[in-house]
Please model this.
Amino acid sequence: MDAAAAAEFALMGKYIGAGLATIGLGGAGIGVGHIAGNFLSGALRNPSAAPGQMANLFVGIAFAEALGIFSFLIALLLMFAV
Amino acid sequence: MAIDGEKAAGGLKIEPMEQFTIKPLFGDGPIEWYTPTNATLWMGVAVLAVTAILVLSTRRRAIVPSRGQSVAEMLYGFIHKMVEEVAGHEGLRFFPYIMTLFMFVLLSNLLGMIPTSFSTTSQIAVTGTLALMVFLTVTLVGFWRKGIGFLSMFWVASAPLALRPILAVIELISYFVRPLSHSIRLGGNLMAGHAVIKVFAGFAGVMGVASVVPIASITAIFGLELLVSAVQAYVFTILTCVYLRDAVGDAHH
Model:
C-alpha cells in the first residue's frame, strides 16, 4: 500500500471511529431516562417528598450523563486531535 | 479520490464549529496570552453582569424589595440553601466561592445565547480551569482538614474485605476523572447546543419557503438551550458541593 492510500485509509478509520463513538450517547440516554422516569414514578406516589430529592435527581443525572460525555469526548478527539 | 462532500451538496454550507474560534478583538495578529479576544470580552461582560445583578441592584436595600433586589435575594437564598443541604453546615465556609462559580457560569451561559455573541463556557479551556480549581480546592481542603484520614475516602469500610482493594482502585480512578467529566459536561452541553442551532440555521438558508420548518425548530431548540444553560450552571454548582462534602463533611457519603 502506498503512502497516499494509507493516509486515506487512516482518514476513513478516523471518521468511522468517530461515528461509532456516538453510539455511547444512547447509553447515556437510557441512563438519564431511567433516573428521570423512576424519580417521576416515585414522586407521583409521594409528592410531598419530591422537592427534597431534586438535588439527588440532578446529581444522579449528572453522573449518568458523564459516561455519555466520555464517548462524545472520544468522538471529538478522533475528529480533531488524532 | 479527494473528499469534497461540502462542494457536492451545492449551496448547503454548514460550519457548526466556526462560531467557537477565538479571534483577537483588534486586527488579526497572533494571539498571545495578553491579546484581548472575543473570549476575554465576553468573560468581562459576564463579570460586569454578575456585578450589576448582585451589587448594583442591592445598593438601595428596602423592606419591600425592588425587582432587581428580589432576583439577587432569590439567587443568594437558592445557592445558600443548596450548599447547606448538600455540603453540610461546614461547607458554608465555601459559600462565597460556590456563589461566584454559579453566577459566573450562569451568566456566561446565558450571555452566550445572545445571537452573534461568544459563548465562553463552550471552551474546554474555560470550563477546565474552573473544574481544576474545584478539584485542587477539594483535595487541598480535604488534606488540610482531615490530614491523612482523607485517604480513607478511597477505602470503603462498609464493603467486604476482599472487595476493598478493587473498590479502592475504582474510587481512585473516579476521583481523578472528576475534573475531566466536570468540565466536559458543561463545555460539551453548551457546545453541542450551539452547534445544533448552527446546523439548523444552515438548513434554513437553502430550503426556500420550506425554511419555516428549520426556523421553527431553531426557536424551539433555543428555548431548550435556555433551560440547559440554567440546568448546567446548577449541575456544575451542585457537583462542586458534592465534591466538597467529601472534603469537609463526615466520613460516610
In short: Helices of chain B lie at 5-8, 38-56, 67-87, 95-112, 124-146, 164-206, 212-248. DSSP finds seven helices and no strands in chain B. Confidence is low (pLDDT under 50) at residues 1-9 of chain B. The interface with chain A takes residues 1, 3, 82, 85-86, 180-181, 184-185, 188, 192, 231, 234-235, 238-239, 242 of chain B (CB under 8 Å).
